[in-house]
Every structure is written in structure tokens, then in C-alpha cells.
Design goal:
2 copies of one chain form a homodimer. Chain A is an all-alpha fold. Chain A has a domain of 142 residues: Tetracycline Repressor, domain 2 (Orthogonal Bundle). In chain A, 70% of the residues lie in helices and 0% in strands. Chain A is built from 10 helices and no strands. The longest helix of chain A is centred in the middle third of the chain and has 29 residues. Chain A is elongated and about 55 Å long. Chains A and B meet through helix 7, helix 8, helix 9 and helix 10 of A and helix 7, helix 8, helix 9 and helix 10 of B.
Chain lengths: 211, 211
């Protein structure tokens, strides 16, 4: 998913991308200066411009870097091994909740942060954010298709819309966590998402059973 | 709710606040320059600095201006007259959907946009956004308290958390609308919120009945 198509990205490039995740999530895209990212990465502006044409180029690559990181984290999470698709969906939300217990800039979403402010002024950033949010939703959509066939085959909603809805709730939970300066409200919001999924798939037990 | 406590705010002040709503929702807080707001308002920087100490001062006043505008719009909406609290909640979501059919910068939320990027760097803006999001949620909370007593008195969720959840879904729907450059996904997301509320309050009919 990275714009650098070589199989082994240069270590400085990766350092800059990792640094940009921290700085942009803490300050937003527009307030982030290339100097801030270089300082966070411990690299020079010369090194930066060796790898990126400018800040927008960095942001597009950072969106793909963030998407690839999320894919690694979620595909390796224990809930992915659960045999039942409803358990995997509920497990996904629970796993999301389990990784919220840290400072706000560390659990919030680079993609939602950047697209919120840059959607109209930077079409390339909007497109990169959409691509990575949608790719993450498509992973969930597979489980939703399976779960819907077994438990909700007559439902009047589409798997695509429900997959996107999980992401809308998560993005909104991050906005409220930022407004309230705490992850606690985000945990509560994901409890409601859990409850909705249980209601849709006829699960009355409060938590997925272990495998 | 405005920081100007006089009963009749100066017309230039209101012009600047209205202009800031448009510019910040289109570009984000950090990318907005005072010059942009003055140009949109058709006023000089001298006029601006007569009313505001600077951009952060404007943003805090704009959050309260936006909150007051929302209060006027929602308190005058027809669904507020419905006698049943569940009908009012479902009517709120439907009304939200009905005002999405316009360009993205015109239906998205100033508060969610600003807090997304400024939450950590501008505590006064974070506080103003939280205050106005929470005030809007508290209006819904009254209906939720009533509806819960009648239809869900044994529920394991609090009215406060459900009121905030409606706002999380709306904020997340705006993030997705920005990512996809269309209000259609936001309409779909609010359909899911409608369905959740109907499930919680035992409403199987797809829409609230007219009074």
C-alpha cells in the first residue's frame, strides 16, 4: 500500500513516516510543519526532501503507512482466530476498546484527523484517507457478509453500510475523546456499537464466548 | 452562549462569526487565516481586531455562535412537537438526514472539525467544542430519559451515554462524508442510528408515525 514500491523502504523514509503519524495526530495536518516531522524523526530536511516532494506527498504516503500498520495489527489480533463471524465482529470492537487506554494522540486515527480538515483543499489526501478507511472496512465486511447469511438474511441493511458504520462510530468516538480529553467516552461509544451488533445478529450474551 | 454578553451583538461581529463558520468548515482551523475570514465577511482586519483578540478568540466565539445557531434550528424543527419521546428521537435523526442534501462544507460540524485538529494545541477551543457538543447532547438526553423510563427501564446503558452516542455517529458520518466527498454515506450511517434506537425502544415500524 506504500507509494514507495520497493520491497525494502529506506530506514529514513520509515522514520519520517512514523514521525509524521505522531506529529499529525497531535497537531492536525495544516499545523504540522516539515521541520516538526524532521525533529521528531531526528533527521534533516535534506533527508526529508530526498524521500518526499513536500508535505502533501508525505501525507498521502503517511495515510498508506498508517493503513498498512493497522492491517498488520488487526490481522494478527487474537479475535481473528475465532471460528464464528459474529464473534470476530464483536471481538474486533472489544479489541478496539482494549487499545484505547493510552494518550489521545496515540489511539486516534491519522486518516480521520487529516480528512476532517483537508478533504476540500487537498484532494490527494482525501483520496488516500478514503482508500485506507474503505480497505479497513472491507476486511470487516467479509465477516459481516458471513454473519448476515446465518443470522440476519432478511435484514434491510447492506454489509457494506454496516462495515462503514463501524468506522463511523469509531471516528465519532475519537472526536468525542478529543473533545473530552479522555478515552473513557470512546469506550462507552464502542459499548453501544457492540450492543447494536448483538441486536442485529441476535446475540444476547454481553461478550463473545472464548473459542 | 455567545462570549459577547450584550443582548444585541454588533452586526460586524455577527458577519465575522458567520464567515468563520463557512471558512473553517471548508479548510479547517489551522489553514484558516484571519484574512480569509475578513474577505468572506467583506470587512477589514481593523474591524476584525475591534471584535476579536485573534484567531483563537474567534474560534471560541464561533463555537458558541454555531451552538446557538444549532439550538435555534433544532428547537424550531417540527419533530420537537411530537408528543412521544421516542418519536422525537427518531424525528431528530430523520431531521438530521433531511438537512444533509447540500455541499459537504455546509452540513458538516464546526465543532467536530475544530476539535479534531486543535484539541491538544488549543485547550480553549477544545473546551468550547466540548461545551457546545455536550449542550446539544443534553437536549436529546431529556427525551432519552423519558423514552427509557417507558420502554427500556431495565436497560444497561445510561441516557447520557446514548445521547453522546448519537453525536458520535453524526460526527463519524461527517468524517466519512468528507472522505467520500458525498452526503450519501452520512444518510446511510444515520439509517443505522435510527435502527439502533428503534431496537432499543422496541419500535419495529421503520419511521415515526405523524402526530
Amino acid at each position: 500500500m506504500m507509494t514507495d514500491t520497493s520491497s525494502e523502504p529506506h530506514p529514513s523514509r520509515t522514520k519520517i513516516l512514523d514521525a509524521s503519524l505522531q506529529v499529525i495526530r497531535a497537531r492536525g495536518y495544516s499545523a504540522t510543519r516539515i521541520e516538526d516531522v524532521c525533529a521528531e524523526a531526528g533527521l534533516t530536511k535534506g533527508s526529508f526532501f530526498h524521500h518526499f516532494r513536500g508535505k502533501e506527498d508525505l501525507a498521502v504516503a503517511a495515510a498508506d503507512h498508517f493503513g498498512a500498520m493497522a492491517e498488520r495489527i488487526f490481522s494478527a489480533a487474537p479475535y481473528r482466530q475465532l471460528p464464528d463471524p459474529v464473534d470476530r465482529l464483536l471481538g474486533y470492537v472489544e479489541f478496539r476498546q482494549s487499545i484505547l487506554d493510552r494518550p489521545v494522540p496515540e489511539f486516534t486515527c491519522l486518516l480521520g484527523t487529516m480528512v476532517q480538515e483537508a478533504y476540500d483543499t487537498h484532494p490527494a489526501i482525501r483520496e488516500a484517507c478514503d482508500r485506507n478507511i474503505s480497505a479497513h472496512a472491507q476486511e470487516l465486511q467479509r465477516d459481516i457478509v458471513e454473519a448476515r447469511e446465518v443470522h440476519a438474511s432478511e435484514a434491510d441493511w447492506t454489509p457494506e453500510s454496516l462495515a462503514l458504520y463501524t468506522q463511523a462510530v469509531i471516528q465519532g468516538a475519537f472526536v468525542l475523546a478529543k473533545a473530552k480529553g479522555s478515552h473513557h467516552v470512546a469506550v462507552q461509544m464502542l459499548d453501544h456499537l457492540q450492543r447494536y451488533l448483538r441486536l442485529l445478529f441476535g446475540r444476547s450474551d454481553p461478550r463473545p464466548t472464548p473459542p
